[in-house]
Structures
1.
Amino acid sequence: MNIHEICGAQPNSGRAMSAFRGPDRVRRVACLGTGLIGGGFVALFLARGLDVIVWDLAPDAKDRLDQLLTTAWPTLERLGMRAEDRGTLSWASTAAEAVTTADFVQESAPERLELKRALYASIESAAALDVVIATSTSGFSIADLQAGTAHSTRVVVGHPFNPPYLIPLVEVAGAVHTSREALIAAEAFYQSIGKVVIRMDHEIPGFIANHLQAALEREAMHLVAEGHATPQQIDAAVVHGLAPRWTALGPCMVRHIGSSAGGISGYFERFNLGSERSLSHHNPPEFTPEFIRAMEEGCRAMEDGRDKATLTAARDRMVIETLRAQRQAGLSRHGI
């Protein structure tokens, strides 16, 4: 059982020739920054057999990275990585030196705009022209990073979820001027190292997953602030209610197969008859025909020709495996 059984998504394959290096030509990755995100990427790249050259100006960077790798490696081994397949790690004295021989660049410097802009100015001419430069930023857009400078078409967002060596998701996005080939090359590379990639049509602040996470976190804060729930109750509701189901199905498909008739479009027809509007501090969008059509088309695509009974059975199998894993891990009532 894997995520594709439920959502019907399949990894991309058989890509055409590109102006940028594809996964088969990526053997050496430059990692700029070794904090929680950058260091997590270093761990993942090494575990996937890639050679990594690192740059970080922090005086304790080497010690912090060694500690992170020591923590991450047992987890990676449980995921099937082997020590004998591990790539090599080396350090560069400058960012430009790090990217000169790289086949892919992952920038994870601190979220300070002027620092990042100066960093890009220093590496743009040093990296080979067919190498994609990806940023882990969650707070800035490509347009922000390149404001006041020449717009490079190969700089893309490669935004992970922490820790990158464990959580599969990466969101790939770009500005209007970003090369589509660079986005495709980044997507293919991340997929080749086991990531699940959302390639966005355009940038928005925070991208997709952070928007969803923020909405849930803010609603939790409202419930505590208004005296409706304790933090313990909220975490228990997520870990033992939402999380097992969301392991198999996201909120769109939960509504789609849970609707008694008409799929998700039928749900929107009956929305005003229920109590949903009183269940959130966030007002829903206007249910325009265009919105409902977009929701229905997306859910039908995830159905991938399967009927409700088949989808429900697949969901149940996934939830069972999740519950077994929780019990085996000794999960407490509220989580770890």
Note: Residues 3-199 form a domain with the Rossmann fold fold (CATH 3.40.50.720).
2.
Amino acid sequence: MQTTKPFPALPMSRRAFSASLVLALGGLAAGCGRQSDRNTLRIGDQGKVLELPLQLAGQAANPPRPFEFTTFTDGPNMNAAFLAGALDVGMMGDTPALFASAAGADVVAIAAGRTPPNTYLQIVARPGSGITSLQDLRGKRVAFTKSTALHGYLLLSLERAGLTQADITPIDIPIVSLAKPLETGDADASLLGGPVLTNYLEHNPGARLIEAPDPGYTLILASRRSIENAGIRAALVDFSRRSARAGLWITANPDIWGKHYYEGVLHQDPATAKALIERQGKHRLFFAQVQNDAREHLQRQATALAKAGLLPEADATVARLFDPAINQEFNKVIEEAAA
């Protein structure tokens, strides 16, 4: 179990932040930084949540540029590929998107999916912890994964309770291990989502879900360099149109999606897959229009991260992620696809 040391009290410069992030990510971009066939559209995916809907909905056939998917374990890992110029487009949570912008990845949001509060991701208190509300987290040991969407969600939740990260004992561990400290008693609460959340609740009925009012956002980011290339831009428009249609297919076919994704990709049993569909099945749509609510959410999160000394230049970091002209163009594409 790794307990984090106190995070820096003062925000660092953008140059220092970018350098530290690249060093922290190490060689993660090496495998993606190869010169791929530039007739392809290079897409960063996580768990086939972009690739599989296209296939199931019949939207993957004969794109103008063949789709080249690379799977990443999380957004922070994908950031290295963007920084290396190895991706045209990719999907990640709100917090990693902020870190990508702060590190100088030069990416812009072309779509944004909103997850309603308390559906996909939640703070879970272990049985007997005495935690029943956000205010009760003061002085408690809370497990999360630094620099991921879980981290940003936690900071906003603490803010709602008048708390900061300094008011808890943070435990920074990999996403796949976040249920373990609850089971061993090494943490009082943990950030859990998806199958990990469902499985933990099934085996620990005495656990307490801590309600928080903030939604989550998933961003589809495109490289500005790719957007400025007329051929790649046309491929991005086509990809967005197909993906928006695929998202509508999921909404209309949640049971088929659950069987292929939750059972086939995530290897969950049918009962767990059904529970996941009931909890969040229709809420995991990533290709929705970029609206003001997404920008306002990221602004709040960036401000919270900056106060914690984790992100430089909050306002500028958010501003780089949004471009009115680009957003208008891709919003229109998504609207037409929905029609």
Note: The longest helix spans residues 230-252.
